[in-house]
Specification:
The complex is a heterodimer. By secondary structure, chain A is mainly β. Chain A is built from two helices and six strands. In chain A, the strands form two sheets. A four-stranded antiparallel beta sheet of chain A has the order 3-4-5-6. A two-stranded antiparallel sheet of chain A has the order 1-2. The longest helix of chain A is centred in the middle third of the chain and has 9 residues. By secondary structure, chain B is of the alpha/beta class. The mean pLDDT of chain B is 96. Classes of the chains: A mainly beta, B alpha/beta.
Chain lengths: 89, 420
């Protein structure tokens, strides 16, 4: 079991969450080129080791979190609200 | 005199002198400075590609480079199921050709791959699923693939141990059977292709890791390995699970995420399940090995992982599905479980194509489906490398299909790799 420390709910089993995929991709502006949209929708770094990703605490506070996890060891280095990571409040 | 060919007569001959005269199954050569083709990855797909390059295209100056031992990756980690019950154009024809190759593979390779056409049965648990199975079966038959829609009684006759009681959480309405599907021995597939390729002159080099690519201008002209530089006219990669990693060394980003898929085997039992059964209510599949162990698997763990070991919630889920189907297994003990790192693509279908970099070919993105695809994958990948252009059976498995919108999304799940 991965234990994710939710900023609102504390340490919770990962089965309370759904996985939201890589957080390193940023949604392009509507004016972006087709290639930028292809990269956003389909292409991934797929890193072995350090990985930034989204998790949705769907059976808890329903907040989106940005988790920094290692894809070899599953060690979680940090968890923060996705909105804060995106510079919103 | 050494004995090369496996046959009953040679078995008798060998037994007369204590089996001391068998030749080794393949050589253990040092890498040459250059080859016409270098294949990275000594699993089933890489070895099959090398075999068919030599057999079908006369390209024998070929090396297969493996960082560990033959078949030590996903070739030896799957649940050995072989089937071609696909519906989408592109997939259906490709997997059917693979099944046809499987049917003659032991003879072709002079190596018993233990292919057993024991049938693959997909259960249906609602009227909607019966409709869906009818549609899939019809579309398979239109593509010349065998399919039979079974009702509840026919399923009961075939697998009476399933839960047909009034208490079944997911009552069985019927199922879709592909009689020609079945199982095979996964190690034998790697060893058979290795021996076949070696006989045709292919060098198989184990314990040799690729650490970079050699370039001349924009073109890839070889690989840098732990045993030195090896030049090549063309380089093919067949390293599913780590395709993204290796492609990154060449500067490519791919529509692939790596996930962990678990499999399980129980203690040996007397003969119980003589076919392959998949659950319709959850993602779960089960068969019985020749040693008697029940072999089964389920869902991905669901998050990016290269760990080659899985997490317990998915194990619990698989056991739950096993008991929902076969309540009689309640006292069964598990012997082993393991995980494999799999390439999950954005549409759930593979990539076998020339890469955007000259001299580099990609064979990967096998999702759940790599083992059964191995013979056809080698067949069409060899063709693609030999001709610099795809075989008709893999012309849809391009990298460009994503930007063109020509996805082959069998499940209709969209660009979410862990949902396929």
């Amino acid at each position: 079991m991965l234990i994710i420390r939710c900023p609102w709910c504390g340490e919770r089993d990962h089965t309370e969450f759904t996985y939201g995929g890589a957080a390193s991709v940023a949604r392009p502006t509507p004016a972006a080129t087709d290639q930028e949209w292809v990269d956003y929708v389909y292409m991934r770094d797929n890193s072995r080791g350090s990985h930034e990703e989204y998790w949705h605490h769907v059976q808890g506070c329903r907040q989106w979190l940005r988790v920094h996890r290692d894809t070899m060891t599953h060690e979680i280095a940090s968890v923060m609200p996705a909105a804060m990571a995106a510079g919103e409040r | 005199m050494t004995i090369n060919k496996y046959s009953f007569l040679n078995l008798v001959r060998g037994s007369l002198n204590g089996h001391r005269t068998w030749s080794r199954a393949w050589r253990d050569p040092q890498p040459k400075k250059s080859y016409d083709v270098v294949i990275i990855g000594g699993g089933g797909h890489g070895l099959a590609t090398a075999y068919y390059l030599a057999r079908n295209h006369g390209i024998r100056n070929v090396a297969v480079i493996e960082k560990g031992w033959l078949g030590g990756g996903n070739t030896g980690r799957n649940t050995t199921i072989v089937r071609s019950n696909y519906m989408m154009p592109g997939n259906a024809q490709f997997y059917e050709w693979s099944l046809k190759l499987w049917e003659g593979l032991s003879t072709e390779l002079n190596f018993n791959v233990m292919f057993s056409a024991r049938g693959v049965l997909n259960l249906a648990h609602s009227d909607a699923q019966m409709d869906q199975d009818a549609r899939r079966g019809n579309s398979m038959r239109l593509n010349g693939i065998d399919a039979e829609l079974l009702d509840r009684e026919q399923v009961r006759q075939m697998v009476p141990e399933l839960d047909f009681s009034a208490n079944a959480r997911f009552p069985i309405y019927g199922g879709l059977l592909q009689p020609r599907g079945g199982t095979a021995r996964h190690d034998a597939l790697a060893w058979g292709f290795a021996r076949g390729a070696d006989r045709l002159g292919v060098d198989i080099i184990q314990n040799c890791e690729v650490v970079g690519f050699l370039r001349e201008g924009a073109r890839i002209v070889g690989v840098e390995t732990s045993k030195g530089a090896i030049r090549a006219g063309s380089v093919g990669m067949a390293v599913a699970g780590h395709t993204g990693q290796l492609a990154a060394l060449a500067g490519l980003r791919l529509p692939i995420e790596t996930h962990v898929l678990q499999a399980f085997v129980s203690e040996p039992l007397k003969p119980l399940i003589d076919t392959v059964v998949t659950f319709g209510a959850e993602h779960f599949y089960i068969s019985q090995s020749d040693k008697g162990g029940l072999v089964f698997g389920g869902d991905l763990d669901g998050y990016n992982s290269y760990a080659q070991r899985g997490n317990l919630p998915v194990a619990e889920h698989a056991m739950g599905a096993a008991l929902a189907m076969f309540p009689m297994l309640g006292q069964l003990r598990l012997l082993r479980n393991w995980g494999g790192a799999v390439d999950m693509t954005m549409d759930g279908s593979p990539i076998i194509a020339k890469s955007p970099i000259d001299g580099l070919y990609i064979n990967g993105g096998w999702n759940y489906g790599g083992f059964k695809a191995t013979p056809a994958s080698g067949w069409v990948c060899a063709h693609t490398i030999a001709h610099g252009a795809p075989h008709p059976l893999n012309e849809k498995f391009t990298l460009e299909r994503f930007e063109r919108g020509n996805l082959i999304d069998e499940k209709g799940a969209g660009p979410v790799p862990n949902a396929h």
